Amino acid sequence: MEFRNLGNSGLRISELAYGNWLTHGSQVEQEQALACVRAALDEGISTFDTADVYANTKAESVLGEALKGERRESLEIFTKVYFPTGPGGKNDHGLSRKHIRESIEGSLRRLGTDHVDLYQAHRFDHSTPLEETMEAFADVVRAGKAHYIGASEWTADQLRRGHVLARELRIPFVSNQPQYSMLWRVIESEVVPASKELGIGQIVWSPIAQGVLTGKYKPGQAPPAGSRATDDKGGANMIGDLMKDDILERVALLEPIAKEAGLSMAQLAVAWVLQNDNVSAAILGASRPEQVKENAKAVGVKLEADLLAKIDEALEPVVQRDPSLTKSPQRSQLEKRG
């Protein structure tokens, strides 16, 4: 495993982070989830990313159980707050002081630790003054319950506004967690330049486009049994927009390029995001331990310019670059009304 600084901070994290969105507590049984975490640790992965909303808090509990007994100082544990948890009532979501202060307590209890290394705003909250949000995060940091603060899927403007307040409050706002892959490059034109200026690093999710970039989905064919595209617990809905024949046909063109590089298609996809020097880590999920071991082989791979150009040529017609697609839902859209 190789390690990078998280943004301009002194925190060193593994280039691959293990994430348990759509797996722990829902798609994958607990015994298998524990085996995947063990495989991650065996590969030298020290960074683990979760969120309170994943499986409505169950994912944090599974991760806490899986990491029990590990030396806490050797791990970097990240979690997030924003989306609805519990019954999803009027204060069970968002970035209000109330929800942040209550949510960090629940996350720490489920994770079995007295602090997280990074506490992230899972989206931007349009309904709460940003000053209130950042002051609440400052309280969390000063109480020793989080070392660093970050965001997820914030626009360049939102990152700038948050960073100004963080500097005023003297708390370390060091990261953003966006979707990023060969197919989804919406952060490149605005978010990445702003982040470099501010000293913010990207912890990217879905580097293999939820499995589409592995090549296992074929145009005109039904998805393989047991794959994310057949998961009725959320996976199929999330991957739906990528399961189009024009996208799958273009992805198929990557197979000879991966062979030229001596990589699997999944390894090529992971290595590709790690070529971006603003990426501090790529988050990988897994439903089987062997997936962790195979994808870890992407660490340290250098892709030459001519190979990167071939990837661009193969995918360009279906690459998404529009920065306006970085959006956060209004809290009113999330509240469950009984």
From TrEMBL:
Molecular function per GO: oxidoreductase activity
Span list, region Disordered: 319-338
One Pfam family, short name: Aldo_ket_red
Family: Belongs to the shaker potassium channel beta subunit family.
Source organism: Leekyejoonella antrihumi
Keyword NADP: yes
SUPFAM superfamilies documented for this protein: NAD(P)-linked oxidoreductase (SSF51430)
Record's compositionally biased regions (Polar residues): 323-332
Annotated keywords: NADP, Oxidoreductase
InterPro entries assigned: AKR, K_chnl_volt-dep_bsu_KCNAB-rel, NAD(P)_OxRdtase_dom_sf, NADP_OxRdtase_dom
Protein name: Aldo/keto reductase
GO cellular component assignments: cytosol
Presence of the UniProt keyword Oxidoreductase in the record: yes
All copies of domain NADP-dependent oxidoreductase, residue ranges: 16-315
